[in-house]
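Marked as duplicate of an earlier ticket. Keeping the data here for the record.
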Amino acid sequence: MITGHVTAQREAVVRLIILDTAQQPHDVDTVIDTEFNGFLTLPRAMVQTLQLPLAGNRRVTLGDGSTVVLDLYLATVLWDTQPREVLVLAAEGGSLMGMAMLYGHRVIVHVVDNGDVLIDPWP
C-alpha cells in the first residue's frame, strides 16, 4: 500500500521514490491530479538533478486550455517497493501524479487536514 496525506491546501500528497541514472533514490512529493491523464510531471530542475533520459516530447493541453509542447523523459519509480518505468513530463510548477500512474489502483482520500491518502492495487 502507498500512503500520503491531505494538506491544509486540500491537496492529496504522496511521496514517491524516483531513481536517478545512478540508481540512487530521491524522495519527491507529488500531488494527485485527477485531470492529468499522464504518469508524472516534474519540474525541469528535478529532471536535471535525476539526469533522466529524454524520450521525446509531447503536445499537452494545460488546465487553462492552452496547448504547449513539453519534453518527455523516462524514469524509474519505486511503486509499492517495486521498480516501475514511467513517463515524466518536464513542466513548471509542482510535481503531479496523474491517472496513468494510478490506473488499476484504488485511491482513498480522507479529505480533512492531514487526512490519509491510501493507494492500493484493485483486483
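See parent ticket for discussion. Residues 9-102 form a domain with the Cathepsin D, subunit A; domain 1 fold (CATH 2.40.70.10).
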